[in-house]
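> example.struct
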C-alpha cells in the first residue's frame, strides 16, 4: 500500500473525531465489502458520494461544515484514497455493484427518499441509483459528470468508447510508479485550480488501489444512462465547469451538457466559473451556496 496511507487514515480519523457528537450509530449496522458510510449531523437525509480515487473527507468535509441542518451520509468507496479494496478488488465491473450497495444502504437504513449529491464518478453512482431504483431519492445533484462518460472523450456511444477505455485501463494497471505519479500530477493540475490543494488530491489518488481505479474508470467511460435519465422524475441539478481537462470552448462545453441531459425531464444545468473539476475545493463558498439552495 502507498506510503501516503497513514496520512489518509489520520485525516479520516480526525474528520470522524471532529464530527463525533453528531454521528448517528445506525450506519454502523450496515456492512458492505464495497463501501463504508459515515453519518454526520441531524435533519433531512443527504447522501454524499465522492469521485474516483477520492476520499469522502477530502471532498465533502467543507460542505458538511458550511451547510448544517442535515444528516449527511458520506460514502467511502473501498479501494480509494488508501482504504482497503475489499470486494471491489474482484474482477469484473465495479461501478454498478457499488451503486447497488448504495441503494441497499438507503433501503436497509430506511432513509426516506434522501437527496443525493455525487461528484464525478460519484455523479455516475448517483444517477445509477436514481435510474435503477425509482422512488429511492427525492432529488439529485451531479457535479461535473455526464450520463455517458464516453462523451467526455468525444465518443457518441459505448461501443465507440470501449477500445479507448480498455487501453486506459491497461495503461493504469501496467505503468510504473514514477509514470503513475507524473501522470496523476499532470491530471490533478487540470482538475484543481488552486495550487495549494493539488498535493493532497494527488496523494490520495496515489494511495488508491490501481485495479479498483482502473476498472472504475473503464466503467464510467462505458456506462450510458442518457436515455435512462428520462425515468428520473425528480429535480436534477447539474453543476459543471469549463476547464482544461476537457479541451472544449465554454460554448461547446455548454452544448455538451445540454445534449447529455436532453432526456432528463426536470434538469437544471449551471456552469460554475473560476473552478476546475473539484468545484468544492476551488470555489467552496459558491459550491456551499449551490448545495444550500438545492437542499431547500
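> example.seq
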Amino acid at each position: 500500500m502507498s506510503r501516503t496511507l497513514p496520512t489518509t487514515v489520520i485525516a479520516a480519523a480526525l474528520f470522524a473525531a471532529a464530527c463525533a457528537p453528531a454521528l448517528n450509530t445506525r450506519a454502523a449496522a450496515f456492512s458492505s465489502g464495497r463501501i463504508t458510510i459515515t453519518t454526520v449531523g441531524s435533519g433531512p437525509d443527504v447522501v454524499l458520494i465522492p469521485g474516483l480515487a477520492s476520499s469522502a473527507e477530502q471532498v465533502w468535509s467543507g460542505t458538511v461544515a458550511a451547510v448544517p441542518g442535515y444528516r449527511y451520509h458520506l460514502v467511502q468507496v473501498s479501494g480509494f484514497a488508501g482504504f482497503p479494496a475489499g470486494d471491489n478488488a474482484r474482477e469484473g465491473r465495479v461501478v454498478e455493484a457499488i451503486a447497488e450497495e448504495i441503494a441497499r444502504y438507503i433501503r436497509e437504513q430506511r432513509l426516506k427518499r434522501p437527496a443525493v449529491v455525487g461528484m464525478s464518478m460519484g455523479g455516475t453512482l448517483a444517477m445509477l441509483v436514481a435510474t435503477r431504483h425509482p422512488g429511492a431519492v427525492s432529488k439529485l445533484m451531479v457535479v461535473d459528470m455526464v450520463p455517458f462518460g464516453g462523451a467526455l472523450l468525444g465518443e457518441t456511444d459505448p461501443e465507440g468508447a470501449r477500445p479507448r477505455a480498455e487501453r486506459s485501463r491497461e495503461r493504469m494497471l501496467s505503468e510504473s510508479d514514477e509514470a503513475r505519479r507524473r501522470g496523476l500530477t499532470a491530471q490533478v493540475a487540470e482538475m484543481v485550480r488552486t495550487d495549494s490543494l493539488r498535493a493532497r488530491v494527488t496523494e490520495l489518488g496515489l494511495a488508491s488501489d490501481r485495479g479498483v481505479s482502473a476498472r472504475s474508470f473503464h466503467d464510467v467511460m462505458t456506462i450510458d444512462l442518457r436515455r435512462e435519465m428520462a425515468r428520473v422524475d425528480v429535480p436534477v441539478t447539474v453543476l459543471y465547469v469549463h476547464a482544461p481537462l476537457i479541451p472544449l470552448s465554454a460554448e461547446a462545453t455548454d452544448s455538451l451538457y445540454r445534449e447529455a441531459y436532453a432526456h432528463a425531464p426536470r434538469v437544471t444545468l449551471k456552469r460554475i466559473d473560476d473552478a476546475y473539476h473539484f468545484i468544492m475545493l476551488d470555489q467552496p463558498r459558491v459550491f456551499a451556496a449551490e448545495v444550500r439552495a438545492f437542499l431547500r
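> remarks
The first helix runs from residue 5 to 18.
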